[in-house]
Specification:
binds guanosine-5'-diphosphate, 17% strand, alpha/beta, binds magnesium ion, single chain, flat, 7-stranded mixed β-sheet
């Protein structure tokens, strides 16, 4: 390959994509990014002149195949590098949201020399041009995917750099320690051999200063991850105890069929509801019947298999017991089988109890501590939501800005902690500083990987390929 060919293949090209979702809408946006975006945009529309950077202009969109007949009016906005989302020259044509018009613009742009953007390529360019770091790029995806306001808030904080800001002082401290040891090493090998090497106690203290905020950061994962990923919650119990009624009550609408006949719910019914900002997928199951009940038909039997699968997949299991009845042995067995899984025991139909005295409640009498609810009267539902939230988030991880929320972030922090612990150990047994420095550099690489300062191409590829085209 000739040198000129190599250098031209390294040149940044201009990409184009429809940035708005497929289908019809009030407006639809075609976005160009790269050195040719201005020229290509002007080939697609009629404008007296190019708008100034950051300004919008009303333009006509032409159908180039029909002697340039106008097919729409649009707004052209241009941004000049580096003051744009991608850090490159960007042009956005906001036409009416007609798929035909947008396709025509897209095809015209490609004919004029643009290339169809890959998934996430705008955000990837923003990252590569240093406009945002990797945690911020990830947040773009999370913000778009947010199902609850709380999720959007967390993503917006991360997009604003909350996580990076939390990591920066930790990295500063680590760099200080590395510099300290490297300076000590240089002195030791140079002429100034009587310069004191850094005392092990001092090294120990600085390692602790780096490790301690990293531990806090790692602990933020439980909440951040739960908030980002949501949770699934299965309602289980005998037939007719009121699972479907509770499901509807938590959902605040009549989604599952409720009847007085046992075995009404045969398949699992799933709906998502926000509890404390966490998208929770509620799974209503068929009752877990015991063999001594009436014989099962095939659909019911399959429903029971599904119920068992739902229990296996759930992040939290709600065992529903009828407060008006004594606890049955199979219910005790069910509760016992969930011993080491997150679960809550819920007593239903408390409105039917003659006395509100808890002692009179069958469940309490039977020694089963349950959250008492009435789907019919709405009693105990707030307490149940609070208990669900408590179970899902765990105690002792207060909400904080810049929480870790993806496995990738968690692994980077764990790697850094691991390396620092190894350094602490090496320091304790008095190993040479060269060896400590190997661990400290490993910790530094891990923190740099978190924000994307050093991240391998395949990891980057994996992150950006999960985006849609146009982001
Ligand atoms: N009084 C009263 N009845 C309820 C309550 N929850 C459920 N039920 C009744 O109990 C029966 C079974 O309810 P359902 O939700 O279908 O139970 P599932 O089989 O466990 O899903 C129905 O007749 C419901 O109306 C409640 O909170 N109070
Ligand atoms: Mg049911």
């Amino acid at each position: 390959m000739a040198v000129s060919e190599i250098s031209s293949s390294l040149e940044i090209d201009t990409i184009v994509a429809i940035a708005t979702p497929p289908g019809r809408g009030g407006i639809g946006i075609v976005r160009l990014s790269g050195p040719e975006s201005g020229r290509i945009a002007l080939a697609l529309v009629v404008a007296d002149h190019m708008p100034e950077a950051g300004r919008a202009r009303l333009v006509s969109v032409l159908d180039r195949s029909k002697e340039g007949a106008p097919i729409d009016q649009a707004v052209l906005t241009v941004f000049r590098a580096p003051h744009s989302y991608t850090g490159e020259d960007v042009a956005e044509i906001a036409a009416h949201g007609s798929p035909v018009v947008l396709e025509t613009l897209l095809e015209g742009a490609i004919k004029a020399g643009a290339r169809l953007a890959n998934p996430g390529e705008y955000t990837q360019r923003a990252f590569l041009n240093g406009r945002i770091d990797l945690t911020q790029a990830e947040a773009v995806q999370d913000l778009i995917a947010a199902q609850t306001l709380e999720q959007a808030r967390m993503a917006a904080q991360q997009l604003g750099g909350a996580l990076s800001r939390r990591v920066a002082p930790i990295k500063e401290r680590l760099l200080y320690l590395i510099a300290l040891l490297e300076a000590g090493m240089d002195f030791a090998s140079g002429e100034l051999d009587d310069v004191d090497v850094v005392a092990p106690e001092q090294i120990e203290a600085v390692i602790r200063q780096v490790l301690s905020p990293l531990e806090t950061l790692a602990a933020s994962y439980a909440r951040g991850h739960r908030l980002r990923e949501g949770a699934s919650l299965a309602l289980v119990g005998r037939p007719n105890v009121g699972k479907s009624s509770l499901f509807n009550a938590l959902l605040e609408r009549e989604r599952a069929i409720v009847t007085a006949a046992p075995g009404t719910t045969r398949d699992t019914v799933e709906e998502t509801v926000a509890i404390g900002g966490i998208p929770v997928q509620l799974v209503d199951t068929a009752g877990l019947r015991i063999a001594s009940d009436a014989p099962l038909d095939e659909a019911e039997e399959m429903g029971i298999v599904r119920s068992k699968e739902a229990i296996a997949d759930a992040d939290l299991v709600l065992v529903v017991l009828d407060s008006t009845q004594a606890v049955r042995p199979e219910e005790r067995a069910l509760v016992a089988s969930l011993e080491d899984r997150p679960h809550l025991i819920v007593g239903s139909k408390v409105d039917l109890l003659v006395s509100s005295d808890p002692e009179a409640v069958g469940l309490q009498r039977d020694g089963v501590g349950a959250l008492l609810t009435s789907a019919r009267k709405g009693e105990g539902l707030e307490a149940l939501r609070a208990a669900i939230l408590q179970q899902l988030l765990g105690a002792g991880s207060p909400a904080a800005e810049g929480a870790l929320n993806s496995l990738r972030q968690r692994q980077a922090v764990d790697e850094a902690r691991d390396a620092l612990n190894a350094a602490a150990q090496a320091n304790q047994v008095g190993l040479p500083h060269e060896l400590l420095l190997v661990d400290l550099h490993r910790a530094l690489r891990a923190l740099d990987g978190l924000t994307g300062t050093t991240t391998t191409d395949d990891i980057l590829g994996r992150i950006f390929s999960t985006f849609c085209i146009g982001k």
